[in-house]
């Protein structure tokens, strides 16, 4: 953030407008501005109209409290009479614990406002940046600087956005390993709905995205607003309703005691807080997708179909088996082969060797180059698994440098998978890990890293004894940024015990994420649906698993396993060596189908619908010009009526006519015994308006069956 130099007037109103989003900032008496409005752009009102309206609807003082009007500012302050959670909490040995900032400088462009405010008594300065990006997302950042000579301890710095009065329903998420992003809905009530994370990563149980809206909102209907903290460490998000009726969402990093102490002139900066809006969740999600797609380093070439070795062999690696697996993958159309965990010194199980990033000569006597070169000769990319932030208690690195383990005092934290967390805030540890990864990327011409992170941070103290989660998260970002700078063509996937590190902080830096270790198609349909609120299809790792899912034990036909993977970054996690020659045609057919559709899937707009209370789910991608769309439809459970009725095909051009046909062909998906009329109606064309409102008749499928629909404009 660059600090503004233009003196701020005592009071004012600013309209920021970009990409269908308006933000109105108002302030008086030199106080920190409040967001008076954020959401869809007004059609007719300009800045002068909005300033007049803001003055006319100003809040009245509340009885039995301070005489002044106390709006919900970007940084609410106890010193102004705000009775909710303050935005800044900190002190100097018990002093300067309350603030009353005065606005000193403010600069605004059509889509950005930057402001600086000071509290001379507390000797503090805050800088706040409010920006609408080219996707229409609202981005908020703040920093606090210590102007005094005595150290200032920061306990919290969070930013707040208002919740509209008619937004009375709350949606956020929870979860666990193999069941990520489980939605939770409820009414907003007086008091605080507080979600905190202390695990040092985003977490399986992450709130993920905090959404408020009119009661009953869904993917296509209802005005919604959502807030997300773009940070891969500890976080806190609070939805708070005061007795005055004012409701806010406050979001920022969660800091442990003493984690951030500012000396004179030092500054602490918050993570970016992202806010989106839309008519339904699909429109809200589209803004996040658009932002990621406009990144300078967003992948522009087709996303390679990926084969990962993990579930095929686990730790049982040997050169002949891996070469055979790669050859079998190439034969069915795989474009990237990834060697997962088990290739480095002494790694025969999950108990040892993290940090010893040298190829194990006992497993690979001729080195990994034998495999990497062969994979490249087969025309595929070569990927390699790392867990750079971790260190096994039983490893050479831990024996040589026990001081490189994050810990408190003279004790180690509780182990998880017999591993600890490597202190990347230690420059020597950081350099050793970086150099080890760099050497292998250079030696093997690694095209892709699967970057894992398989435990929470517990008692993560640095060499100085202070909590180090903040610094560890910054170091993780720095390491990825450094590798990407050094190897511009290297791609990185974020994995964390499956989907435990998915947030905008990491999404801004990587090429794809792994949503879950659970490949059960029933669970994947649900996980993809809500992970997709942030993640566009081309960044969502989506693989075909084994017939019997390893994480749930359920058994499914290939078509049902392939369909949830179709609308993502497609791949496979199964042992294709075990397929007979005649059996390989079917996975090859699914790979071919995905490749024929991926230009659409990886650039289009994601849409969702459901029927029978979620027993039937639809997920689709519509081309940017709405000339084409593909939808997957899955029957997850027994439905409450029979026949199952209709399901809408959302997102199409209302005026255009479309031809509708089922996918894939009968060679991949047997024709259902009974089909609706449109199934064979190749010459029929329907208006997009009708397909969106009336939909199409569903074939009477059994539970745990699915199919796809292709829709093509004919005029």
Give a nutshell description of this structure.
By secondary structure, the chain is an alpha+beta fold. It is built from 13 helices and 37 strands.
| CATH class term of the largest domain | Alpha Beta
Approximately how much beta-strand content do the residues carry?
25-35%
In terms of per-residue confidence, which ranges show pLDDT below 50 for 5 or more consecutive residues? none
* CATH fold title of the largest domain: TIM Barrel
* Quaternary structure: single chain
End-to-end distance, in Å?
49 Å
Q: Helical proportion? A: 10-25%
Total individual domains: 3
Question: Structural class, judged by helices and strands?
Answer: alpha+beta
Q: From the coordinates shown, what is the CATH architecture of the largest domain?
A: Alpha-Beta Barrel
Mean pLDDT: 95
What would you give as the CATH superfamily of the largest domain?
Answer: Aldolase class I
The radius of gyration is 27 Å
Number of helical segments with 4 or more residues: 13
Keywords: Glycosidase, Hydrolase
GO biological process, one term: carbohydrate catabolic process
Organism: Microbacterium sediminis
InterPro entries: Aldolase_TIM, Alpga-gal_N_sf, Alpha-glycosidase_related, GH, Glyco_hydro_27/36_CS, Glyco_hydro_36, Glyco_hydro_36_C, Glyco_hydro_36_N
Structure overview:
With 715 residues, the chain is α+β, with helices and mostly antiparallel strands. It has 3 domains: 12-293, alpha-galactosidase from lactobacil brevis (Beta-galactosidase, Chain A, domain 5), CATH 2.70.98.60; 306-603, TIM Barrel (Alpha-Beta Barrel), CATH 3.20.20.70; 606-713, Golgi alpha-mannosidase II (Immunoglobulin-like). Helices cover 19% and strands 30% of the residues. The chain has 13 helices and 37 strands. The strands form 7 sheets. Strands 5, 6, 7, 8, 10, 11, 13, 14, 18 and 19 form a 10-stranded antiparallel β-sheet that branches. Strand 21 (336-339), helix 5 (369-377) and strand 22 (381-386) form a beta-alpha-beta unit. The chain is globular, with a radius of gyration of 27 Å. Its EC number is 3.2.1.22. The active site is at residues 452, 517. Residues 33-261 form the Glycosyl hydrolase family 36 N-terminal domain. Keywords: Glycosidase, Hydrolase.
């Amino acid at each position: 953030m660059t600090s503004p130099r233009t003196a701020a007037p005592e009071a004012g109103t600013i309209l920021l407008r970009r990409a269908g989003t308006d933000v109105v900032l108002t302030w008086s008496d030199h106080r920190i501005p409040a967001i008076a409005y954020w959401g869809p752009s007004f059609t007719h009102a300009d800045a002068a109209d909005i300033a007049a309206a803001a003055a006319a609807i100003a809040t009245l003082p509340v009885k039995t409290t301070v005489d002044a009007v106390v709006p919900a500012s970007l940084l609410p302050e106890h010193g102004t009479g705000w009775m909710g959670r303050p935005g800044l909490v900190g002190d100097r040995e018990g002093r300067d614990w309350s603030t009353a900032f005065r606005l000193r400088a403010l600069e605004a462009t059509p889509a950005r406002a930057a402001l600086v405010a000071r509290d001379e008594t507390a000797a503090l300065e805050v800088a706040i940046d409010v920006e609408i990006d080219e996707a229409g997302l609202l981005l908020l950042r703040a920093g606090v600087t210590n102007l005094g000579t005595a150290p200032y301890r920061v306990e919290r710095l969070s930013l707040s956005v208002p919740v509209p009065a008619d937004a009375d329903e709350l949606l956020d998420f929870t979860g666990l390993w193999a069941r990520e992003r489980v939605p939770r809905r409820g009414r907003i009530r007086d008091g605080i709905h507080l979600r905190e994370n202390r695990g040092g990563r985003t977490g399986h149980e992450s709130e993920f995205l905090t959404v408020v809206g009119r009661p009953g909102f869904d993917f296509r209907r209802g005005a919604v607003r959502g807030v997300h903290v773009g940070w891969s460490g500890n976080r806190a998000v609070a939805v708070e309703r005061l007795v005055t009726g004012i409701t806010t969402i406050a979001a920022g990093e969660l800091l442990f005691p003493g984690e951030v102490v500012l000396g004179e002139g030092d500054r602490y900066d918050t993570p970016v807080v992202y806010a989106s809006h839309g008519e339904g969740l699909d429109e809200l999600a589209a803004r996040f997708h658009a932002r990621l797609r406009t990144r300078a380093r967003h992948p522009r070439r087709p996303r390679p179909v990926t084969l990962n070795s993990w579930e095929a062999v686990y730790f049982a690696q040997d050169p002949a088996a891996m070469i055979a697996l790669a050859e079998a993958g190439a034969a069915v159309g795989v474009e990237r082969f990834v060697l997962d965990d088990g290739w480095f010194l002494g790694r025969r199980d999950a108990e040892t060797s993290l940090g010893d990033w040298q190829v194990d000569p006992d497993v690979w006597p001729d080195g990994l180059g034998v495999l990497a070169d062969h994979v490249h000769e087969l025309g595929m990319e070569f990927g390699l698994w790392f867990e750079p932030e971790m260190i096994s208690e039983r490893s050479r690195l831990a024996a040589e440098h026990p001081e490189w383990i994050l810990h408190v005092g003279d004790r180690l934290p509780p182990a998880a998978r017999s591993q600890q967390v490597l202190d990347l805030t230690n420059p020597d540890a950081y350099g050793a890990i970086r150099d080890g990864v760099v050497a292998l990327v250079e030696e093997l011409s690694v095209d892709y890293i699967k970057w894992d992170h398989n435990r929470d941070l517990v008692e993560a103290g640095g060499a100085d004894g202070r909590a180090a989660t903040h610094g560890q998260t910054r170091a993780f970002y720095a390491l990825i940024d450094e590798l990407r700078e050094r190897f511009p063509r290297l791609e990185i996937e974020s994995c964390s015990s499956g989907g435990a590190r998915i947030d905008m902080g990491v999404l801004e830096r990587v090429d794809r994420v792994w949503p879950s270790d659970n490949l059960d198609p029933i669970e994947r349909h649900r996980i993809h649906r809500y992970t997709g609120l942030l993640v566009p299809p081309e960044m969502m790792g989506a693989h075909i698993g084994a017939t019997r899912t390893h994480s749930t034990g359920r058994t499914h036909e290939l078509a049902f396993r392939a369909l949830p993977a179709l609308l993502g970054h497609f791949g496979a996690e199964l042992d294709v060596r075990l397929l007979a020659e005649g059996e390989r045609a079917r996975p090859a057919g699914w790979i071919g189908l995905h490749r024929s559709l991926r230009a659409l899937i990886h650039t289009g707009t994601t849409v969702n619908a459901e029927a029978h209370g979620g027993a039937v789910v639809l997920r689709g991608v519509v081309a940017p010009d709405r000339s084409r769309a593909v939808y997957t439809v899955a029957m997850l459970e027994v439905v409450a009526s029979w026949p199952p009725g209709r399901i809408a095909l959302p997102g199409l051009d209302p005026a255009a006519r479309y031809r509708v046909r089922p996918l894939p062909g009968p060679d991949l998906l047997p024709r259902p015994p009974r089909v609706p009329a449109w199934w064979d109606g190749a010459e029929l064309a329907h208006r997009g308006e009708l397909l969106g409102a009336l939909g199409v008749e569903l074939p009477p499928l059994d539970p745990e069956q699915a199919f796809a629909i292709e829709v093509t404009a004919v005029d």
